[in-house]
Specification:
4 copies of one chain form a homotetramer.
Chain A lengths: L3 H4 L1 E9 L2 E6 L2 E7 L4 E7 L3 E6 L2 E5 L3 H15 L5 E6 L4 H6 L7 E6 L2 H10 L1 H4 L8 E5 L2 H7 L4 E7 L6 H4 L4 H8 L2 E13 L3 H4 L4 H9 L4 E9 L4 E9 L8 H11 L8 H7 L4 H9 L6 H5 L2
Parallel strand pairs in A: 7-8, 7-10, 8-9, 10-11
Antiparallel strand pairs in A: 1-2, 3-4, 4-5, 5-6, 11-13, 12-13
């Protein structure tokens, strides 16, 4: 009996908003361990399949990571006329990498993740997520803090994708500031496109300093053109945001453009298509108002006053 | 401190899927009582404001009931050229009624709810939801089982809106069967439109006999034209479906048509506009596939074999 | 199915120790309301029957309130040669009163509770607890803060019983200080006995400033003779302490004395007898050590430095 | 902040009674794995230290395993005039073994546990529990089902201690039947003593077929003399029972006898002493009544009719 386990078993709870949480009954603890940087758990859930947790926080589930990753990757990749060189900041699970590699023009992908051991654990326990992506000869793994990489590298990219953890400490927050976006801009080619995950639309501003509205506003203060977009990711328990940005007028995030491109390159996806593109970029009235009324541009110096 | 209350306080948990639930910390029990038909609770939550519960199950929150109600009501109302006579099945809280009354062509609205006491409790404890709608001279309250009303009435409607509780017992399930839809069809005018809430998109088929895919398929077996659509309702913890249906070729659910109508009638909404209409009707690939691969047409006789 | 309700229903959680709680599934919300001083709820539970909550904290259950009340009342009442005049501080539910009235020598009982409405709610919703005790002609209800009553009254008592809520705020803490006990001492007759509930033995010192060890030490600093004792109260989720105190050498808390008295007066109890008295006063080694090693005498002035 | 973890973290819940559970916030997952027979987890908790779980059910915590083990072992060991040969059924964690070895007359201890891997995991992750006991030259480890061992062995023991898991399946239940006790009796020397853990006093009969009252009655149907006794084990969330039994009139479980023995052998304990012995054997009125009114003798054949 399924429910028995709630009274006699193991659960994971994640706070989604103040006084509001969602709860997963654990079917099996598959792996528990510590890297030099963080705690890593892989659990099994009745519906969500395997769930990866870093420091006790769910990062992805095999039930729906493809929704999250397809929508993080394909809008920026399709908006670019011919992406050859791509960087993924974070993304040690390999899911975003898998999606990037589906684009036939791609010649080189840098994956910059701070924790090599997480990559190894994901290779071993979540092979359905990375799907051999780490073995692709186009891939270069860089084990480094993404902020540091961006500060130091002279590489330039057609597309940079930020697949980062939640901005809940000074360290992770620093990957969502104006200063960081200004640095990162220098690593984009002329037609270059940046895309980042952008937190929970309805809830993040209720308890995070860096939140959906601040990310959108901060990106807007740096890039000439930007668009937030969204999707509901079942295992996240809430509607999730992304934000795409560029300085080029040739970048086109319209669903019609995406549709045309999709007719050429025939992406093998489970969730994404031109209809999803159309739906994702339509934010409702109250959310457009929320972006304007809440939060402000975040700079490095704001993070120091803790 | 907000979290204190989780270790020493009152919670409401709602199962969203097998082994998966969301949990609300209760800030205040505002009302608890029993009508002759069900238990009714009104609680207060930090984020979601007031939450109405029937037999322990959350029905709406003041944080987002307008998302749910605007999307339930405006697509069918705008798809009809000139809705004058409308029926709401269920909807004792008055939220759908409030939205229907915003349409200037409306001359008469029947609200058919089985529990008069729920209406009274909502008038008293949730005035922000019904917003005086019950006092509008165009409104006729019918205290009756919706199935029985449809079987017995000779009234005909331009729009019928089903704002029903979850199909978890034989009684509530009977409002989602082919037999019921066939009866209801006779109560629609020639250009008449039917719209119903249609349960959780990703999860309902995992534990309900009547679920999102079966509702879509059953409606499709009766009406000549139908379209499922969706929105994320924060307090529901998952993406929610609706299904609109008609036998008339003059019915137009395109966002362009909605946009044109909206330019004429200037609806006062918080969530809904033409962009929402556009987004709501784009179902992703995996969901279109889900509808085809899962569930089947449900008839009254299926409910007897329990 | 019982467990269904855990995934879709109402719970009460009470913190027992840091990071440790117990959880009650609510079968029915019987009453919810606010007096001028606090929130009052009465719920029904599968095993524990009715549970009374003040400000969201469980106070008693009909499953075992008689364990708590019999052990709070009978040891001090039997230790006194002939208790005629008794005061109960708190105890608005009437359970301690019911037990006191069982002693045939009793002529007058003062019940001093700050909240008259709680008494009325308990009379109406928990008649099995007070069992008509409030109607006994020997009873005098005083609606007043117990601290204030003790400061102002010139009445003297044979037995004073403190049936108080947890010391979690300055107000309730002030009923567990040396200053209070010194005042209270003046209201005891020469052979007078004081007895108080004394919190969770293993856990209270882990998160309360006023805790089992501090109560025992503070009482000991005031009274010439005192003894902590204990019992497991199922619905409390932990072993609970009491402390009895007196300045008279004629007071005898031995189980042999209790036994002799019980042979004379034939108390009608469900839990208590001489064996319980024997067991209750034997504290294990680790607890005797805990009292010595943790906490200190608490005075009014300690409560000001918050 | 401690409570943060409840909304964003890992919990273990254990059902204590129908609709009633206690919940541990997990500070760290120390070990997770599977033996050939069961799942084993070791977690760390703020208060309870390390907790061992078998198949998701808490077995012991380092906070209080010594309460459980001292009370399981010392009453039977002290009641015997001179225990030389002892058997422990179950007890793979080594805690009962550690206590048995404290008795100076002991020459040989058999520990019969079905799962060798559990012993190895406990040696590695819970060294504070077994405290080197497995390395004592007097110890013999037998990896075998305890029922089978008792059926097959011709060894005779002065004391047999049953340190078993809960009777929740046919296999574990078979270690609490009349048939088993009759077999086991043949393995006791003339003055031999048997002692078993005997489940939760107030709750076990509410949901287990084999429960505290049935264990007491079944033992009583086999042995000439027996006594249930109890203690509150904090991490168990309820008062726990044991039952000691013998056919010899020379066996003395009085606290006076224990006290006299303790003066001779000076046991190094943290919880147990003569006062604990006195307290443990005094069952309150309602529990003595419960034993008589609930449950019945359980035989092997009762377990077959599932």
């Amino acid at each position: 009996m399924v429910e028995e386990s709630l009274l006699c078993g193991s659960w994971y709870a994640e706070r989604i908003a103040p006084d509001y949480a969602h709860v997963f009954v654990v079917k099996e603890h598959i792996y528990t361990g510590r890297t030099s940087l963080q705690r890593v758990d892989v659990i099994r859930h009745e519906i969500f399949g395997k769930i990866l947790l870093l420091d006790g926080k769910p990062q992805l589930s095999t039930f729906d990571e493809w929704i999250y990753h397809e929508l993080l990757v394909h809008p920026p990749m399709l908006a670019h006329p011919s992406p050859r060189k791509v960087a993924i900041l974070g993304g040690g699970d390999g899911g975003a990498l898998r999606e990037v590699l589906k684009h036939p023009t791609v010649e080189e992908v840098f994956l910059i993740d701070i924790d090599r051991e997480v990559i190894e654990i994901c290779k071993k326990y979540l092979p359905e997520v990375n799907a051999g992506a780490f073995d692709d000869r186009r891939v270069r793994i860089v084990v480094k803090d993404a902020r540091k990489f961006i500060q130091e590298t002279s590489e330039k990219f057609d597309v940079i994708i930020a697949d980062l953890t939640d901005p809940i400490s000074g360290i992770s927050e620093s990957l969502y500031t104006k200063d960081f976006y200004l640095q990162l801009q220098r690593n984009l080619e002329d037609n270059g496109i940046f895309c980042t995950q952008a937190e929970s639309i309805y809830f993040s501003h209720l308890y995070f300093r860096v939140s959906f509205p601040t990310i959108v506003k901060t990106i807007r203060s740096v890039f000439e053109r930007s668009s937030p977009y969204k999707a509901w990711i079942p295992s996240f328990g809430c509607e999730w945001a992304y934000c795409i940005a560029s300085n080029s007028i040739e970048v086109d995030t319209s669903w019609k453009f995406a549709k045309k491109k999709l007719e050429e390159i025939k992406l093998d996806t489970r969730y994404y298509d031109a209809d999803v593109q159309k739906s994702a970029f339509c934010l409702p009235k109250n959310i457009r108002k929320l972006i304007e009324s809440v939060g402000r541009v975040i700079e490095d110096r704001d993070l120091r006053n803790v």
